Amino acid sequence: MADSGLFVGFGIPVRGRERQAIQVFNEAFEYYARLQQDGELESFEPVLFEPHGGELNGFFLIRGDKDKLARIRTSEEFERMTARAQLIVEHLGIVGSVLGERLMSQMGMFSQQVGELT
Questions:
Q1: Distance between CA 38 and CA 27 in Å, rounded?
Q2: Tens of pLDDT, residues 46-102
Q3: Residue 98 is part of a domain; what is its CATH number?
Q4: What residue numbers bound the domain in which 89 lies?
């Protein structure tokens, strides 16, 4: 089970670029599917939100090994996909994430530090 993730969040398409937003979303989906097939990531899940008045319109949650995700995140292809997305959606954000067993380890470390500092 994956212990790390990438949260790739995005807002609404830039007005007038809705068609390009669909194109780039499909490109990202195909890119992540290829990485999964090649064993570079464990899984990914695209999520779209219902209208709610907030800035976040959806996200991809990409699950995998911490080191492999770090390589993906700094790859030329990922950087190119990010640049394309920045041109067609508002509020693009990419955040490293802690998942699975690593989550419990992080919480244990945090709890230990709270104990030492209080």
A1: 16
A2: 999 999 999 999 999 999 999 999 999 999 999 999 999 999 999 999 999 999 888
A3: 3.30.70.100
A4: 4-117
